[in-house]
């Protein structure tokens, strides 16, 4: 009897437990979906509150050169960092009325508008269209090519909607951001993503690397250029400026100019119509692992000084070639690209503090920052004489005329590089300036330096290659 009574009860109990478990799982699924949905931001109110202050910009006149963005395909910068322009634009083809060249946004209700310099560069007439389709002809207040920013002004008979300026320094990697712009001429398109990285340095021969870009995965395409990048509070934290692309379209990597830099540029353009930027007067290079070991650093960091320009603030402060700058005004320098950003924002004419590593020891210097001048290119001249040495180098001395043209006091040109020299990456037409922290004034000095190289050592070599200074490392094997 006991067994007969127990079996139905066990079955019912099992069934109840199964249904209870199933219900619990359904409830858990609903809750999980709700939590996941709650974690995604809703941008609708942000867009409604701010889209009226975003504008479309077009120009009348010959289309700008865009800093030769469609130049030789062997130039990595031109290949990957393409400025935004209409996809149908072709080189050397005048455009009398190009449409939807870019975006911009109103920063002050009396008509000041911020956009990218390359959007309006070379324009004879600039037209601004608001979201309500009102159009105004804009006055160009000023531009700054190095930061790729331009300030416009329109005259309206009413107060215009303006955006709230935020603080890009407070942005965190992984934080949601949103862009509004006119990609491919589709006005007031909204795209969203996250901050992928901060402080990106994008070296550019025309503009330098003075902008610590915000990298995002927000979909940015031709026409978004100059538009605002928002945080979730509806504050502008950046100006969309560049994309990383093999095709010219969005590939998941976009770059925006931090709003702090833009605010400083706007102030200077309004006050004096131009932007002055701090200048140290050095050429710098990244510190590789081998270079760090050869200079006595525990790890790669800092900016390696490849050249100190004559008469520059750096020269006056006693900075030397092969110094490694590891700190500027209390800011640690981890990568060389960070230094120009800090120097560019430093007050001109005021002292700044440097910490350098020289001969394995830290040294503090005070330097009075100058104003960044325009830079001229260098040309090469004829060579003379030749000399062989034991590490596989064939070199020739430089003439006085060549050294003057290159802006150097001495050096030797590489004619051929074999053996250890070839393994180090030395190439014909390289000009060797320093080796083992010593100046190479001529081929005789080079031989003296090489004669003192010890087996098993790593020898830094400063080279001038195609008007750029680079460091190579010569690894001398141990004796058998």
How would you describe this protein?
With 480 residues, the protein is an alpha+beta fold. The protein contains 11 helices and 29 strands. It has helices spanning 2-39, 44-50, 76-80, 117-120, 259-272, 289-294, 313-317, 338-345, 400-406, 419-423, 443-451; strands at 54-60, 81-82, 102-108, 112-115, 125-129, 135-144, 149-153, 164-165, 176-181, 189-201, 212-216, 228-230, 235-244, 254-258, 278-279, 282-286, 303-308, 324-328, 331-332, 351-358, 361-368, 370-371, 387-388, 393-397, 412-417, 431-435, 438-439, 458-465, 468-475. The longest helix has 38 residues, at 2-39. Residues 1-9, 31-37, 63-95 and 375-388 have low confidence and may be disordered.
Question: What are its keywords?
Answer:
single chain; 480 residues; alpha+beta; Thrombin, subunit H; Pdz3 Domain; seven-stranded antiparallel sheet; 22% helix; elongated
List the helices and strands and how they pair.
Blueprint: H1 2-39, H2 44-50, E1 54-60, H3 76-80, E2 81-82, E3 102-108, E4 112-115, H4 117-120, E5 125-129, E6 135-144, E7 149-153, E8 164-165, E9 176-181, E10 189-201, E11 212-216, E12 228-230, E13 235-244, E14 254-258, H5 259-272, E15 278-279, E16 282-286, H6 289-294, E17 303-308, H7 313-317, E18 324-328, E19 331-332, H8 338-345, E20 351-358, E21 361-368, E22 370-371, E23 387-388, E24 393-397, H9 400-406, E25 412-417, H10 419-423, E26 431-435, E27 438-439, H11 443-451, E28 458-465, E29 468-475
Parallel strand pairs: 8-13
Antiparallel strand pairs: 1-3, 1-5, 2-13, 3-4, 4-7, 5-6, 6-7, 9-10, 9-12, 10-11, 11-14, 12-13, 13-14, 15-22, 16-17, 17-18, 18-19, 18-20, 20-21, 23-24, 24-25, 25-26, 26-27, 26-28, 28-29
